[in-house]
Fold these 2 entries.
Entry 1:
Amino acid sequence: MKKDLRIIKTQESLRHALLSLLKTKSIETITIAELCRLAQINRGTFYLHYKDVHEVFKEYLDVIVEDLRKSYEEPYYKTNYKIKDITADMIKIFHHVKKYQDFYQIIFDERIPMMYYYLLFDTVRTFMRDSIEEGLLTSQPDLQVDYLISYQTNAILGILIEWHRQEYKTSIKELNMQLITIVSLHNPIRMHGND
Amino acid sequence: MKKDLRIIKTQESLRHALLSLLKTKSIETITIAELCRLAQINRGTFYLHYKDVHEVFKEYLDVIVEDLRKSYEEPYYKTNYKIKDITADMIKIFHHVKKYQDFYQIIFDERIPMMYYYLLFDTVRTFMRDSIEEGLLTSQPDLQVDYLISYQTNAILGILIEWHRQEYKTSIKELNMQLITIVSLHNPIRMHGND
DNA sequence: ACTTTTAATGAACACATGTTCAATAAGTTT
DNA sequence: AAACTTATTGAACATGTGTTCATTAAAAGT
């Protein structure tokens, strides 16, 4: 059940044209008509595959997020809920964002729809869910774990927002240090024996 | 230096028309032409005041966020960086979001630009900045406080995102309890003597 | 009340959007 | 290779976008 070659060709042309246009102008100023002219695709054909320019961009983002997911699956030594473990995971995210900085500058732009943010949120959220220790749930029976996970996930994204606002000038090493300091503040009892 | 009455009338007409349209359709489907027809405003006049439909909506949001800011300025007993203080502040935000639920359902919608999220972020962020104890900065000289504040601010917004996704079904009382539990998890040493 | 200032209007323009439909061309099956 | 299936095309249409400009009308200043 392979996909029709014509579809692949059309979508590739559009993606390629979008990347080309993004080099000189912001995604918000790129029109469907303009994109189709450059890709040499009939405008009606565009609507057979996408609703707007953002949906073409989202296909790139899916690939990028998949890369993040893969980097996360790399095995490493896991112990229970410790600062070192959490930060080790989060550092991967920092590296990832830096690697695809050009894209994340778009994702965090104020004119862009929330959907991209949520895509990142949901991805990081699955990582967070996996890092919850089992003992926590039994020791805190009243805790609705979804709230905890969203809290922790968005806290990390808060770091990324701040990094974005400071135009990615902070080095990953420095960012890493800041995160460890912040998490340590919230976990003063666990300061000893780590790092 | 008062504003021209005609401007006020035009803007009020447009705001009123937008509210009316929002009762039956989503903001993303409302066109400038449609808005102007209902408001009985020439479309060219619209462009003298706004760039797009979102800018009209944003005027409402400015009022709403101002309401949040005011509620926050209510004096209450402040001690140093304790769970009770933080949660007391955050509960105000929960009440505020519930009060304007219809608006926040729009703000957290995935099709909506990030600008609204950032407006809320920046507002809550100023509250967070004010609640940082002075001793912290001297005891942690290497900490870039902007990262800490953005981390904490976005963590709270993470709770709101989760609330939104659960269609605001969680009661404020329950949400409050969840927050206290979560913050307590991160501050195990301070569990005693609070609440 | 009269004058000055400026906001709102309507018409026009080029271009974008979103959709339909018959004709064509390209890919897939046999 | 022929028959099929279906993606793409171009044309057309109504509507929306963003801008310009002379004209009108309403508010502000005197």
Entry 2:
Amino acid sequence: MSNSKLYKGSLNTIILKLLNEHDKMYGYEITQKVKALTKGELKITEGALYPALHKLEAEGLLDVEVAKVDNRLRKYYKLTETGTKETVNKLEELAEYIKTMQALVNPKLV
Amino acid sequence: MSNSKLYKGSLNTIILKLLNEHDKMYGYEITQKVKALTKGELKITEGALYPALHKLEAEGLLDVEVAKVDNRLRKYYKLTETGTKETVNKLEELAEYIKTMQALVNPKLV
DNA sequence: AATATATACATAATTTTCTTATGTATAAGA
DNA sequence: TCTTATACATAAGAAAATTATGTATATATT
């Protein structure tokens, strides 16, 4: 994912937020979108992404729809209602995380 | 550590930064300091903290000094020179992480 | 005096999340 | 023809945490 270990635990937040923005996306598209948005800083590996998508689907946060484009398989994922609610939670947690870490590394400013 | 998984991977950064601020600290003191600075948001568990301290020491980032206070053992940790350099790296990584995540969750602002 | 809580360390089993490696298959470009 | 891009998947292993224990002393409460 990156040389930094801080991204551990962030993958679900990233997936959910992207699906919240783009309605429906397929796995490979997510990897490319993340690469583009972060200017190459962050690369989502397939070994991390696909199991994560399967798990989110199993938990009922994502719905999947299979399509065939140019004779190739695509699995489009979209948020369920529960998934949309969970996205809000994840984003709140991210904001809280950033606030907390800033309190720790920059105690004078907080 | 917290209900949020985002803290996974942040523990070393937190330890190094606190030691950078406070010169020398012992394990239990670190747990209390984190609790206080984050107003209870973040609780470092012993099962995470002590192995992390041992590893940082084994990697040469921390020096340890044992003391007896009130007939109880304390292990004071302090940054080595390498540890101080690594603290700078970790803080840069944290800043980069926050920047990257903001690009992902708030693409319009970036 | 007895009991609970706080201080202070430690580790072992398990879980979660990721990396690395590998596999299949089609399309497009050099 | 061969490499790169597209598109999925999983398995083995590593890393970092959780949860559960364990030891021991000091202090506060009942």
